[in-house]
């Protein structure tokens, strides 16, 4: 009871400390984020062009699987509209999976920063989340160009900040939790990689929620990526299967997750030096 009563004060103190670190180190954070983006494809011929190219290759694979192999068809969507439907759902999944897969081991790989007063170690996962957002924005720009030839009017784009903020906060919360645990339990990376693959198949990327049999539809709704995909899809092409107020609930939940994860990370950080 006592710990529960002190929880709001603890979250407030940890959030204040984290915000102070962000204000003090944001220039270094931004510089390191850009370095991380360049480093990812350093030495390749196409360089940063791989950001949109990777999305296009994965989109092509998805569309081949659903359109050619499974022959999925929706009466209200033509072939090109279905491609836009898939791409709008693929973008948030790629952003999330990229951030989690790269950020998972980031703290363990940078334990030397425990003695660095310039760049606090809790900002290392933030760097990977922001780097993933850079790739996400390149995919968003590509999709918007693809939308231009259609009859879509685009006013829903004004709604895009809502799922974007939710994605960033939710991703930060997940990375802070997992990267802290990965310092103590490195094997968690294997489970997370399997989970990310599973999420790709149970997320409504190439199918609608309504097309899922009622007896297993709960699995789709229990998947947090479903709400991110629905939010992005509504903002980009004006299509969704869930009520709009779900996005508000998910945004509140993402804020709570990020605050709790930040407090958890800072509480765990004193023991990180034991694993250096």
Q: Which tags fit this structure?
A:
single chain; 276 residues; mainly alpha; 10 helices
Structural description of this entry:
The protein has 276 residues and is mainly alpha-helical. It has one domain. Helices cover 71% and strands 0% of the residues. The protein has 10 helices and no strands. α5 runs antiparallel to α6 (161-184).
Number of helices: 10
SS-derived structural category: mainly alpha
Sequence stretches where pLDDT stays below 50 over 5 or more residues: none
What is the overall pLDDT average? 85
Output the radius of gyration: 20 Å
What is the N-to-C succession of helices and strands? HHHHHHHHHH
Number of strands: 0
Distance between the termini: 35 Å
The major beta sheet can be summarized as: none
Number of domains: 1
Share in helix: over 70%
Outline, from the CA principal axes? globular
Proportion of beta-strand residues: under 5%
Summarize the structure.
Helix content is 71%, strand content 0%. With 276 residues, the chain is mainly alpha-helical.
């Amino acid at each position: 009871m006592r710990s529960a009563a002190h929880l709001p004060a603890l979250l407030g103190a940890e959030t204040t400390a984290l915000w102070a670190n962000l204000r003090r180190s944001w220039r270094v954070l931004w510089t390191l984020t850009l370095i991380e983006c360049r480093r990812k494809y350093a030495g390749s011929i196409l360089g940063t062009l791989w950001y949109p190219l990777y999305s296009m290759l994965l989109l092509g694979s998805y569309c081949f699987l659903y359109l050619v192999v499974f022959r999925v068809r929706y009466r209200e969507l033509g072939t090109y509209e279905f491609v836009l439907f898939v791409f709008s759902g693929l973008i948030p999944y790629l952003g999330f999976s990229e951030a989690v897969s790269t950020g998972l081991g980031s703290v363990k790989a940078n334990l030397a920063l425990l003695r660095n007063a310039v760049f606090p170690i809790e900002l290392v996962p933030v760097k990977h989340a922001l780097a993933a957002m850079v790739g996400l924005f390149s995919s968003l720009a590509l999709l918007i160009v693809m939308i231009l030839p259609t009859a879509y009017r685009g006013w829903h784009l004004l709604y895009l900040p809502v799922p974007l903020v939710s994605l960033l906060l939710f991703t930060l919360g997940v990375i802070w939790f997992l990267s802290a645990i990965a310092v103590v339990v490195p094997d968690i990376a294997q489970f997370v990689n399997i989970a990310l693959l599973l999420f790709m198949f149970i997320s409504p990327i190439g199918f609608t929620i309504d097309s899922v049999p009622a007896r297993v539809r709960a699995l789709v709704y229990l998947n947090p990526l479903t709400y991110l995909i629905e939010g992005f899809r509504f903002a980009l092409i004006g299509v969704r299967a869930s009520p709009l107020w779900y996005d508000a609930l998910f945004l509140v939940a993402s804020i709570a997750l990020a605050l709790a994860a930040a407090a958890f990370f800072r509480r765990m950080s004193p023991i990180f030096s034991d694993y250096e």
